[in-house]
Amino acid sequence: MRNVMQEQDVTDWKERLAAYTPETEQERRDRNEILLAAEQYGTQLLYRSHAESHFTCSGFVMNPAMDQVLMVYHRIYDSFAWTGGHADGSSDFLWTAVREAKEETGIQKPYPLTGAILSLDILPVKAHQKKGVPVPAHQHYNVTYGIIADQKETLRIQPDENTAVQWIPVEQLPEICKEPHMLPVYEKVIHRMRCWKAMQEQALLQTAQPLLAWYPLHARDLPWRHTQEPYRIWLSEIMLQQTRVEAVKNYYARFLETFPDIAALAAAEQDQVNKCWEGLGYYSRAANLRKAAQTIQEQYGGVFPRTWEEVRGLAGVGDYTAGAVCSICYGLPTPAVDGNVLRVAARVMNHFCEIDRPEQKAAVTALLRQVYLDNPEHCGTLTQAFMEIGATVCVPNGQPHCEACPLSELCLGRQYCDALRLPQRTAKKARRQEQYTVFVLQCDGKFALRKRTAKGLLHGLWEYPNVAGICTTEEAIAQASAWHCKPTDLTQTVERKHIFTHVEWELYGVYLTCARQDEQFVWKTAAEITKEISLPTAFRQFF
To answer: Model pTM?
Structure first.
């Protein structure tokens, strides 16, 4: 799992430097000199070919507890020092700082504490040799960021530049730092990183009142928001997993009409539930709904459980769904933290930890629990409000609507112009590619179907007969003959595709007229399939 922050063309890099707020007179002088040089030389300063002075980017790497610092022993400086390197043409100083931290130490999963510049300094560099080439004395316009890394990560040296990589307790920095002029810089950055962490937490803790004022005026009118009945809230939350709100509305109404309560759902056959679910996808949700309903009937006397632990123990219920049900239905301080909420939190806090890291979700959940505890009468509304703002205002994959956001004054991501870069996520593995030939076998107006028996995708659901790989016409006819269906005519072939979360199916459909209905299959008319059989979308596209 690696940090996947990508380099960007940061066109406003000079504005970002100007936005840095110095806290001392020396910092003010350094900033002003750097800004003057940036105006005079522009992007020339991004290259070390501007020999007298150029930009470098440093990452001050600390552990999550912020009591240890990761440093490298630099050959040039003959001292333990922070990580960093030349911009080398990049205007993305933050990305450069992360890149250098990884290259110099071997760590693979660092992340910026924030996108804000923590220090802007002019640092002198003495004359030295690099790879046998003399380098005259010059100065670095150094941009510093705070970076967090796990102490469990494997470290390695970069032999041509450093001789050691080591975690050092903060209190030992005065002993190991041989550059007296750098120690005050390090101490300053440590202090600012700790302050930033507190500021990030405080920003999220202040979200309740703006959200509670905003939500009643802007909430969408959704059918499940007219009730606190746990069966209906639970059903809506399960349906909304991986599925758009507009798609869910009709399914929600139809499902409740067919299975109006827990008892009805528990008593249903799985095929009935699947048919009602047809088209929503992720059919394991439907199976778990029925299984959970049966558990409620058997273990709780048909009454929906009332504690987070009990709700969380139901089949198919995770932390998010348990939090939503318990906060909305019972007013418990149990945040419902999903990708939408984590995105809002990342932007509000200007926090660059990948939101799909378990430790980040746990940290956000803990902070939001405190928000709920501070507003005990509004737990359900807070859950709905966080859902709503993530879905309609602080949107993914595009420009968030900051001008309409009630959290804009609190939002550190907006203030530091990082909202579009957030949240960060870990790199996704490429989807596995699989190929299948799907057989639409028709005999006397009926079509061959079977249930999937293999564990894994679509287990226990109906499908058209299929085999792995793409068959030629001759191979397809031979396969249908091997099934004893006596194919007589190939009427058409089609190509389709279906994408699951982690796998992509390339499907080749073969339509064959047959003379025999072999008993290994279930044969149904088109009308019977429409009325009785729940075909997953992967196969329904051949119907």
So the answer is: 0.86
